Each structure stands twice: as structure tokens, then as C-alpha cells.
Amino acid sequence: MTSGLRELLVGEGQGVLATLSARRDGWPFASIAPYALSERGEPLLLMSDLAEHTRNIRADSRASLLVQDSAALADPQAGSRLTLLGRVEPLEQEEAPSAQARYVERHPQSTGYFVMADFHLYVLRLTEARFVSGFGDMGWLTADRLHRELAPS
I want to staple 15 with a disulfide (CB 3.0 to 4.6 A). Which of 67, 76, 110, 119 is the partner? Predict the structure, then answer.
């Protein structure tokens, strides 16, 4: 069931970030979120203090990130997809230089955002995920298993 999980996350560069709305009584709120992967394979998110999803995670850090195979957009249910669940946290100071380098490598156009005072890197600390690799091939993965699957080879 996990065949292709790492390839999907490495091969794609954006997902749909779902947070719980601080302004709308906890209603789900989804937004496009470019991501890179940390050394542990967890999504790194560059977010502005002004963004709605940033306000949401400051009120409740629970979030999910849906990543789908962009090659299957014509028939999205035929492609693989992964919904990562976890808590979005600011990066620890010692993680920042490596994380920034990883993010800029994946998204070179983001370089200018790092000089702006209101943009900061966050990480989605994984708790579990739902992976669908094809019709009838799906299941839940624990954080431990995710970390094993997403660890660099």
C-alpha cells in the first residue's frame, strides 16, 4: 500500500492545506500550499502572518495537507493521493537554515519572501496519513511508519 508514497511527495510541490477556521467557528478552510520536505520528510510550509490559514493554525494547529498526482488530473480518482494529518508548528531556530535551503531549492521563486518580515517557515508534524495508491489500494499510516517511508534513501 505504501508503494509510491515518497515518490508522490517528492514529485509534487503543492497541496491543499486544510485548517480549522478561527473566524468561522471552526469550519474547514482549504488553501493552496506549496511545500518542500524537511530532512525527516515532513512538509515545510512558507506562510505569511497575513494569511487566513496562518491565523487558523495559531488558534488550532491541527491541519491536513492533501497531495495528489498531478499527472492524473484528468481522472483524479485514478491517481494516487495522500492526506497528511498533523499539527503545524513554527520551525525550531536550528532547523531554519537547512529548511530554508530545501524550500528555495524546491521553489526558487520564493527567495524574495524570506527577506519579508511577515513570512515564516512552518512544518507539518505528522501524526498519521491516509494514502490511496489506486483503486482499492488504500489505508491509514501511523506517524512512525510515515517517517520510515519518507526517510531519505
Answer: 67
Distance CA 73, CA 100 (A): 29
Q: Percent of the chain having pLDDT more than 90? A: 73
In the chain, what are the domains? 5-150 (2.30.110.10)
Distances (CA, A) of 115 to 12, 37, 141: 25, 21, 37
Q: What's the pTM? A: 0.92
Encode pLDDT of 124-147 as tens digits.
999 999 999 877 778 999 999 998
- Distance, in Å, from the CA atom of 77 to the CA atom of 142, rounded to the nearest integer, reads 23
Give residue 134's region: left, alpha or beta (phi > 0; psi -120 to 50): left
Within 8 A by CB and 6+ apart from 88, the residues are 19, 45, 57, 61, 63, 122, 123, 124, 125
